[in-house]
Design brief:
It is a single chain. The chain is an all-alpha fold. The protein has one domain. The chain is 75% helix and 0% strand. The protein has four helices and no strands. α3 packs antiparallel against α4.
Length: 81
């Protein structure tokens, strides 16, 4: 549950952070999104509910979008050309 709140906060930070700090925020966000991915896999495999993810479909969709979050965080801040 807490990791979901941090993901939302980091996503918001990517949108609202001044340009001067976006590159660093992007690195932190991409690293965090990558770090929680194994936990998301475990959540899907063990059918654990959290933060509105109360069905296999919702947990699976989360897994599909996690790599997109990593890419978005890195790409939107200039960390990937």
């Amino acid at each position: 549950m807490y990791s979901g709140m941090v993901e939302i906060a980091l996503g918001s930070a990517l949108v609202f952070t001044p340009e001067k700090y976006k590159r660093n925020v992007g690195k932190v966000a991409a690293a965090f999104f990558t770090a929680v991915f194994p936990g998301n896999i475990s959540q899907f495999v063990h059918k654990r509910n959290a933060f509105g993810l109360n069905s296999d479909l919702k947990r699976f969709v989360q897994l599909l979008f996690q790599p997109a979050l990593v890419y978005w965080a890195a790409r939107s801040t200039g960390n990937i050309d």
